[in-house]
């Protein structure tokens, strides 16, 4: 074990992992986080807390993680390169580790143009791959990016994202290989609706033996309505929503669409579980957290493993 | 006026390490003015490289290398010499290097770092080509600049928002990493993208460095 992470422990034990996601509020209200944390608690091994997703100002990920931690959640702090340079990133990395958060997901970040402050100056001092490498050097070499040494290292289980549906497709496995070489311990993928394309990407991953060097969690998310699925297809960068998915939601009476969305999500979980190299799922039910218990139960993934610490 | 200076010789020699024969290009515009890639510097570079066992298949100093029509016309007379070379070393700023990369289907090495555009943007006006970062990356990106043309200045390949050759920020903006990927594929150099690019030294760039110190 490199860290005290529950997620690392679950994966090392060979259990099929389940991670969830929690979006902090656009306010200083801690109760929103407590409410969501209570719903997710017994159904996931760790919960990502987003870092200004879609570049909208929200409570800081690390702060929301601390509130969720009080409710007994294990957290994955998300950290983007959009808003901080390497100095600020390293300060936050030291801080979250000192506060007992065990996992980090290293991201470049959604461009500021998408958010509610499109006139902001984007930072992008380093990119997500360089961030992975920086955290690894801090943890394993006790070294800051500049090369200076530190007394106590941040023991973080290091994650990165990958999108099998972005272009150029031929580069997507190579990009994963770069993240693995940089030091990623686990990967959470973009939300999967096109299972065939995901399977093709996973084949490329296995051909290079990458699934043996990094833990891959397949990204899944339920859709509540036909409109929400269409929005994903046309407006969210890097998404691949096949027409068949929209047709399936359209094919049921309106009052049953959200049920069908849940069933579709469980079906996708069952399909990706069969793919060699997938060792868990990352379930992103943002602003629909109450459906998580049902999805995890229906997929036969409860109870979650518990370790005596 | 684009202000450039020659890269350290060690960097240039690393770039051309696997090349036996090289074609040299300089510019009589800004690069001549700044002494980084005019007639004199091209002649000196020829000797320097020959002393290190490289063959020089030919050389040319173009009037305004950033003018792609002019460059295309001029290079036509050197078809044979360019074909005989393994690569092209361009002794001028980032705009000139990228012009050559656009008009010739051959590996292009940047021989200079671009320090400042001094407010102007050369003769190539239809797009941002150079962000004066002071540490030219064009060697690793097929002669196309991701600092100037990627919305996130990414150095390790496209982000997850690149789809159908377009940038996630705007459907009218081409994804520069798709362009880089396509060009490196054409040149048989996709392995260049496997390299882990370390964090950039922004202190030498106009974006966050002290300009007075850089240009004095």
Give a nutshell description of this structure.
The complex is a heterodimer of chains A (309) and B (216). Chain A has 309 residues and is an alpha/beta fold. In chain A, 40% of the residues lie in helices and 15% in strands.
Describe the structure in your own words.
With 309 residues, chain A is α/β, with parallel strands linked by helices. Chain A has a single domain, classed as TIM Barrel (Alpha-Beta Barrel). Helix content of chain A is 40%, strand content 15%. Chain A has eleven helices and eight strands. Chain A has helices at 6-12, 30-40, 61-70, 86-98, 128-140, 169-182, 195-207, 226-235, 243-250, 257-273, 292-298; strands at 17-22, 46-49, 75-80, 103-107, 157-162, 186-191, 215-220, 278-283. Chain A has an eight-stranded parallel barrel with strand order 1-2-3-4-5-6-7-8, surrounded by six helices. In chain A, strand 1 (17-22), helix 2 and strand 2 form a beta-alpha-beta unit. In chain A, helix 9 (243-250) packs across helix 10. The relative contact order of chain A is 0.14. By secondary structure, chain B is of the alpha/beta class. Chain B has a single domain, classed as Rossmann fold, CATH 3.40.50.1860. Chain B is 32% helix and 18% strand. Chain B has nine helices and eight strands. A four-stranded parallel beta sheet of chain B has the order 3-2-4-5, sandwiched between helices. Chain B has a two-stranded antiparallel ribbon with strand order 1-6. Chain A binds chain B through residues 81-82, 86, 108-111, 113-114, 122, 124-130, 133-134, 145, 161-163, 165-168, 170-171, 174-175, 177-178, 181-182, 190, 237-238, and chain B through 151-165, 168-170, 175, 177-178, 181-182, 190, 193-194, 196-200, 202.
